[in-house]
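Exam prep: given the inputs below (a chain plus glutamine), describe the expected output before reading on.
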Amino acid sequence: MDGKELLDRISRQSDETEFYTPMPAGYKPGQTRYVVVVGTVMSGLGKGIFSSSLAKLLQDRGLTVSPIKLEGYLNIDSGTLNPFRHGEVFVLDDGMETDMDLGTYERMLDKDLTKDNFATSGQIFTRVLERERRGGYLGRDVQWIPHVTGEVKAKIRELAVRSNADVVFVEIGGTVGDYENSYYIEAMRELAFEEGPNSTVWVALTYIMEPQILGEQKSKAAQLGIKRLMETGVQPAIVACRCASPVTEKVREKISLYTNVPMSRVFSMHDCESIYLVPEMLREANLDSEVVSMLKLDDRCDRELAKARWVEWTNYVEGLQRSLRSDKTVTIGITGKYTAVRDSYASIIKSLEHAGVYYGLKVNIRWIDTSDLDDTPAKSADVARELADVHGIIVPGGFGSRGAEGKIACVHYVREQRVPYLGICFGFQLAVVEFARNACGMPAAHTTEIDKSMDQAVIDILPEQKEIEGLGGNMRLGGRDIQVSPDTLAWELFGRPETIHMRFRHRYEVDPKYVPTLQAHGMVFSGKAPDQPIMQILELPDHPYFIGTQAHPCLTSRPLRPQPMFLGLVRAAARRAGVTVADPVLK
Ligand code: GLN
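Solution:
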């Protein structure tokens, strides 16, 4: 039975076959190939980075690629997850709240993704239970295999249809051996079999230890991890070895010997300065060509395009390396309660990196813990000390009261001391609170998120959110248009457009009844929702750079298309630091 025949039989959907895979309408067998990335030894090693870098290389050859992250947890989306444990919640344009890896894919591929690119066990089980209630299982008992795995395969093939992908990249969260992702591995094993030979490339991403006491690289954990994968019936075609330093020939030989993977596909993915260097590492190891030939996709590749894209990308990477080594530096302070975990602010860090490359300078980040600060005279010296040598500051998105008074104190300081400021979402709201308190004579002003009792609630819950309070996913989410007022800083930054588009994730907003007062004292609302009185961008015209947005501009900054509000911040910070910025290195 060849692949096509098998797929035919599977899609017949009768109660007489043991095969079961709901086949989405329009699925073209043989059109889409699959790269499946699984992790062994431990999670957090960069499966998303490997997968997105390889996807980028194939995309640059003219292939259509589409990634999907399969999460083991039972949450429906990542919206309720604590960024301290899981990294930032990344919001897609369609409002889906996802794992931070989707941000890596969007940045690397310079492409907007959708809810089709993200699955959790919660979503898969919901689909199974809904199908069961509709009588979709033809009288059979609903089983892990083939029904739950069938639903996973259906989700993957739906993505293939909707994205019309040449290659779907499937990243399975967690590590081999976890209970919660084992059915994903099983589903992909089945799918690879159904699609037939040359349809699927499995990548095992593993970890080579280098304990200081031994002073050499050890591969045992990696061997055991991959063996565990092979016990599930999966033969990896590529082993990517994460390691602090380049993996030695000897260790690569050992991995090859134990895994049936030829040396040419045992890849050293050692630490490097930036994830944007990984595509080059993969290309040097020839892995992109190997994958194209294993998947028999040579005919669909465009050599000329690949060359041009590679020149563009290597220019960027050279610019990046120059900026990392540049003696021109600026320091940007970031406040926040998750200061200990950089993953919670991944998009902001990347956005600053993109802006730094654009101006050919290095952006240092200073984390500012505001939990012990507030805006009283007793603490003003502490605030001044914390902010003494930052050239710009960001108050990022956030929730709740911890550190909020300290953030307000920082905004007060930078407004008066004329330090460049970018307020993101919560940072926008707190800028309004600070301005109301200290510039508009409203000492009690606050957000009802923190203080429900006061009568100067300049920031209050959105009327549309009130109705759905208490439920999961109850925020104003996803991409929205913003109408930009002419002759404002925002208008100039974005290149004088009528409207721009950014992504949102919030419950609270500026209460429109206070807008006239805020405006009378000099605050300009330069961006508004086109159809509702929702303030979306604020600025202070006689400040060198004071801008805030209710949106999250960091979610849409891309290496080759840095986000204008970050560009503006870094440029203003450079001015403050006395650094002359060269003409943009890109253009
Ligand atoms: N806590 C604020 C709100 O819910 C800000 C949210 C955010 O910064 N993402 O509106």
